[in-house]
Design goal:
17 strands; flat; 3-stranded mixed sheet; 21% strand; 3-stranded antiparallel sheet; 13 helices; alpha+beta
Length: 569
């Protein structure tokens, strides 16, 4: 094998030597192109296989930012190109996010239905195209609805009638959707989610209206019949109103408790009840306001007001001035005929009459504005508060400054009630803090009431008894320790005294023995006796002298050594 490689290398070297410079450059270029192609293929193969969320780019930067934020909230990995294309991990994530974006009205206006459902146009017969269209829309709808986390399975049926010549003969497009919720989902009772599915179906099918969409569950219950859900909405609204009432009452109760407890004490204030009646009715007030006409506005650069106004200006004027003098008008008939004048007018003949009528009508123009004001969503109608305040319990001390104990072994206490002035001040404080209004029937009651503190006093008495027992145990323990220490000191003192006396006695005996030996030696010398000492005697004498010196310097060690000798003997 090695011989084969060697021959191949020799052939390549021989061929390389025969090539011209241009051939060598072409060969090197081919090698570089092959390497670059391998690198490009590797890079493309290692790139994640991402699918586009929409087949067309999103041009609006605000919409693109909102879609990106929503994708981050759903933990969907995505990539946005400079052109505005959005890519996600897989097709399932794309279908799920399109359903969510459609439910929340985040689909851009430039994205068509075809882009949303990723359908291709078919170049076949019209009938097959219509069938394929309906099938594609149905399958896409089912996939999008099942991509929602609240849906386990779904079934969509679309009815797309043929196009008629006249619009009045055209049958509407209808759709029915049957959903099976996942266990634990609240989609059946959540109106927003049902409306999202309805909008999803309506957005997918052209010409489909909300009244022609029926959404049911697997039991056949209609879920998008929002008119019949008015009662449910009313109950839900009532529940929210009760929650608002409870929160408001808890807020007032907490504020009153914090203030009163900081004044009277933590355990002396009890709020029996805080009841707030709220008027939840929605009210809109329309007001007509008339104001004068400004002829000259104020100049802000001058220190005085230059405004000129008039209340009104005349718009139209009508004057009527009518006057009449004479005997009146008596019509007569043709000549030779009797007149047709009624008898009442004949009686007025020869009388002089006078009639005058003056009328002046002027229409004025004034400035007018209409103000539409919507009242608060709720209004406090009545506040009722009941508060109980406890008195003060104080401990009784004797003349020596110690706690007074009852014969039963409990701490003696005295109770001091709250005076009426303090109750009145507390009631005024509460009334001002809640905005008391007697006209709307508010009621604030603050009463003195002695709280039941039996358990508290029993706990304090038991704690006091335990402290007294602990103090006695500590005192007795200290006395016992002191007795032991004193006994130990006395024992040590007596032991040392006995040891000292025994040591003195031993020293005295050693001294007497040494004196006797010295006296014997002196007597022998005086008698001129030649006393020759052996080596053992001399060593013994040196040891004795050394022992005497040690006894003087370290008497305790020598005494211990002597005791050891005595024990061994």
């Amino acid at each position: 094998m090695n011989e084969w490689f060697r021959k191949v290398i020799e052939r390549i070297r021989g061929a390389w030597g025969k090539w011209s410079g241009l051939q060598k450059i072409i060969f090197i270029g081919i090698i570089i192109a092959i390497i670059a192609g391998i690198i490009l293929v590797s890079a493309v193969s290692t790139t994640p296989n991402m699918v586009p969320l929409f087949t067309s780019p999103v041009t609006d930067s605000d919409t693109l930012y909102k879609i990106s934020m929503r994708l981050d909230e759903e933990n969907v990995q995505h990539r946005i190109t400079e052109a505005g294309m959005i890519y996600v991990d897989n097709k399932a994530a794309a279908q799920r996010m399109i359903s969510i974006l459609m439910r929340e009205d985040l689909i851009p206006s430039e994205i068509s239905v075809w882009d949303v459902f990723k359908m291709d146009r078919w170049t076949v017969t019209d009938f097959e195209r219509e069938v394929n269209l309906q099938r594609a829309v149905t399958e896409s709808l089912e996939l999008h609805i099942e991509a929602l986390e609240d849906i386990d399975s779904t079934q969509v049926t679309l009815v797309m009638p043929e196009t008629e010549l006249f619009s009045e003969d055209q049958d509407p497009v209808t759709a029915s959707v049957i959903i099976t919720p996942r266990p634990g989902s609240d989609i059946i009772t959540n109106r927003n989610k049902i409306e999202g599915i309805e909008k999803l179906v309506k957005f997918a099918v052209q010409g489909l209206k909300s009244e022609n969409i029926v959404i049911t569950d697997y039991r056949g219950t209609i879920l998008n019949d929002f008119e019949d859900m008015a009662q449910f909405d009313r109950l839900e609204l009532t529940k929210r109103q009760m929650d608002q009432k409870s929160k408001l009452e808890a807020k007032y109760k907490a504020e009153i408790l914090n203030e009163l407890r900081s004044i009277f004490g933590v355990d002396r204030v009890k709020i029996l009840r805080v009841d707030i009646d709220l008027d939840m009715g929605k009210k809109t007030v329309e007001t007509d306001e008339f104001f004068p006409i400004t002829l000259k506005a104020d100049n802000p650069s001058t220190p005085f007001d230059e405004t000129e106004v008039i209340k009104n200006v005349p718009r139209s004027e009508q004057k009527i001035d009518e006057s009449y003098r004479g005997t009146g008008f008596n019509p007569e008939g043709p000549p030779g005929q009797e007149g047709q004048t009624p008898p009442a007018y004949k009686d007025l003949e020869g009388l002089v009459g006078e009639y005058e009528n003056n009328s002046n009508t002027i229409n004025y123009e004034i400035n007018e504005r209409k103000i539409f004001e919507e009242k608060n969503p709720w209004k406090i109608q009545r506040i009722t508060i009941g508060v109980a305040l406890d008195g003060i319990w104080t401990r009784v001390y004797n003349d020596k400054g110690l706690l007074s104990i009852t014969p039963e072994g409990s701490i003696e206490r005295e109770y001091r009630s709250i005076d009426d002035e303090s109750l009145r001040k507390a009631q005024n404080l509460i009334e001002h803090s809640v905005g008391y209004n007697s006209l709307r029937g508010d009621s604030v009651s603050v009463q003195h009431l002695a709280f039941d503190r039996t358990a508290q006093f029993e706990f304090e008495d038991q704690k006091y008894r335990n402290q007294k027992r602990l103090q006695q145990a500590i005192i007795y323990s200290l006395i016992g320790i002191a007795v032991i220490i004193i006994a130990f000191i006395l024992f040590r003192f007596v032991s040392r005294e006995l040891e000292r006396r025994r040591r003195l006695r031993e020293e005295e005996l050693a001294r007497q023995h040494q004196a006797m030996r010295e006296a014997a030696l002196r007597s022998a010398e005086e008698e001129s006796m030649d006393v020759e000492m052996s080596v053992e005697d001399r060593a013994r004498i040196e040891i004795q002298e050394h022992a005497m010196n040690m006894a003087r310097e370290h008497p305790e060690d020598v005494a211990q050594l002597i005791r050891t000798w005595l024990v061994e003997e």
